[in-house]
Amino acid sequence: MSEQPLQKKGRLLSLDVFRGITIAGMILVNNPGTWSDIYPPLRHAKWHGCTPTDLIFPFFLFIVGVAITLSLSKRKERGDDQSALIKNIIRRSAILFGLGLILASFPFIRVWDQGFGAAIASIGDTFANIRIPGVLQRIALVYLITAILFLKMSIKNIAYLGGGLLLFYWLIMTLIPVPGVGYANLEPTTNLAAWFDNMILNGHMWSATKVWDPEGLLSTLPAIGTAIIGILTGDWIRRDHEPKTKALWMFFWANILLLAGYVWSGFFPLNKSIWTSSYVLYTGGLALHFLTMCYWIIDVLGYKKWAKSFEVYGMNAITVFFLSGIIGRLMYVIKIPQDGGTSITLKNFLFESIFLPIFDPINASLAWALTYIIIWLGFMWILYSKKIFIKV
Hints:
mainly alpha; 14 helices; single chain
């Protein structure tokens, strides 16, 4: 099949497919049948290291960066009112952040049958202890900052800034003594990022002790670097070069990023929870490899039929991520009465009734997650067929 040049005015289908694959991966790792039986690649690294699951979030932030370039370039070039664009960026970021808070606090009322007063008290308790950072919250902050940077700065200066952020983060994390600890370190509860986040977000973080968070504030700085790699990639894709040339250079830079991240990991280990600079380069290289592969197969060679399901997911990515999270939480709230006056959650009832009788526990857990992905694909296909694309 002959090469097909990318239509500059059209959508980049490979990016939609990549986004869909990434969101499907998020749903897969977030919704096992049981958290006690999961294949190791579907778990995050305990601390230092990088599993396939640890690739999903940086892949999405990389995609955010590419999309920023593709969506804002024309408006920037034709001189659209920047204040209006920035207001829209702020609005979208606020909505994303709000959706993240809803996910963190859902269900708001955990006391269903003890009267209005208890319900109000439950709401107050929920918001008094709500986790403020989160996946959507980090996406919101990274999008807000990088989109405004793209409008205000040249591509070259954005690249310099991204490199500077990664160096700055490496230096402060490895050289600055942590107050109350007395030395710089990269341990879970005593590193500088944990101290900084605890100082600002005390009581509103992820860990059981609420003293650190994998989506904390300080580690959002290098996460901006992940999106900047995407911005630079998007700028390259828009240039007037032959598709083969674009793909070859994307492949080259993907390997450079991978090598740089691997070498840097000897001094600053790969770590998703504190989003180390080496992790940014390493996962950015892998993301660029994956996009290059999708770009070559889909947009250049024109093999598209296999990717339809992922395109469907990618066109309503935030919608399916949010709704699948809400329903996943709701299934833990709804209780099914059992003999002897006991009850079981709807999630456990379905899992134990349908999947465990067929598979051994670890495969039953995987089968649940895959079934959950397929069910949501059906809902998203309905939206896709009706051309309903919910944009945040």
